[in-house]
User: What shape does this take?
Amino acid sequence: MTPTKRVRAGLALTGAGAIAACLAMVMASAASAGTTLGGAAAEKGRYFGAAIAAGKLGDNTYVTILNREFNSVTPENEMKWASTEPTQGTFTFGNADRIVNHAAGRGMMVRGHTLLWHAQQPGWAEGMSGTALRNAAMNHVTRVATYYRGKIHTWDVVNEAFADGGGGGRRDSNLQRTGNDWIEVAFRTARAADPGARLCYNDYNTDGVNAKSTGIYNMVRDFKSRGVPIDCVGFQSHLTNSVPGDYQANLQRFADLGVDVQITELDIAGANQAAVYGTVTRACLAVARCTGITVWGIRDSDSWRTGQNPLLFDGSGNKKAAYTATLDALNGGGTTVTTPPTSGPPTTPPTTPPTTPPTTPPTTPPTGGPGGCTATVTLNQWNGGFVATVRVTAGSSAINGWRVTTTLPSGATVSNAWSANRSASSGTVQWTNVDYNGRVAAGQSTEFGFQSSGTGAGLAPTCTAS
Ligand code: 9MR
Assistant: This one.
């Protein structure tokens, strides 16, 4: 279906997941109001992201807004099958790398979108079927997820595989015709390739309780019961003028299955735009496992919904009423994300299960400032790598910045980090706050994380406040 038809049909899209540790991303003082979307979301332990295009990274207005407002990015087209494997077995990552590198230098997370989808396939795959297609598809998953291993907090492993209409069943596609198990095989394949990434199923027109969302709900419930590694469900949320009254309840019923939920492609057309942005944002904040929101573009002129002006910034980059409504909602009430950084790394570890205790106690007394700070680490260790989530807690006084020192054992090299700057990738590493999580009120906490090869035993984090 064309984008225009899809909007006319009132479709709503979905989103994806995040790295294990992304869940407990940034938790700063609930007392202070964020002045940017990313900062305000971080104070609720969530991310706020945007779909971006590599071709716009030279646009000064665009990049200024991106760097100021967002702490997560989704490549709008650059990681799709047609972009990354235009010829079978030949992989091109240049444009996707541009986005990943932009994010990595700024402490932004990356949502990978998408490993398998019926649309935007390369011509050679569109012409394939049966075992040859199945093998080519899983090779694609392995190669792309392996290439980006450690750099992606969430993969949309499978996108839009359910049919519209009343049946609640799968969409017909060349992938579906390879056998109904193609989705679970894709998730298992992705987990083996990148055990640190959160693995999501993403779809549209799933914003309320309806036949399509219930079909997906049943799939997720089945996957969880059989140990198929799924961590999250993305709700695209391409909306016009309103949002279903049971939007929050729908997110909650998925969360209750034991997966995270994410709003992955939010854009809202129509006169009621600002109010609906507020409603959607509050719904996410009300669901403890709703870990973040991504808008599908930055300025109205960047949107795929040409002429509908569904985004938070106008074509000149000015903040719209919808921006203010969203920021106000983020600064309002709501739960702090309470899911542990990961309820186990990989739901199905590719090799051996975690061998280290999940948490080590603070190892240093408060330092640096009247109240100082302490740091604790939670590990998700698997054979050959780990994700560390480090919690920084202010002492008896508020702090305006922090520096955590960790010691990585020999053989451990950091491949990806979020919500902190790092001084090195191995050995003794200094981690310092990024702009939105330096201030922590007395007794409150914020978190950052990183993924590394090797073992995380003996990291011994120490914290200095400023
Ligand atoms: O925004 C994307 C647009 O630039 C592409 O032309 C289009 C191709 O189908 O895909 C758009 O993004 C889609 C996303 O990948 C999946 N959900 C629906 C999005 C809007 O169509």
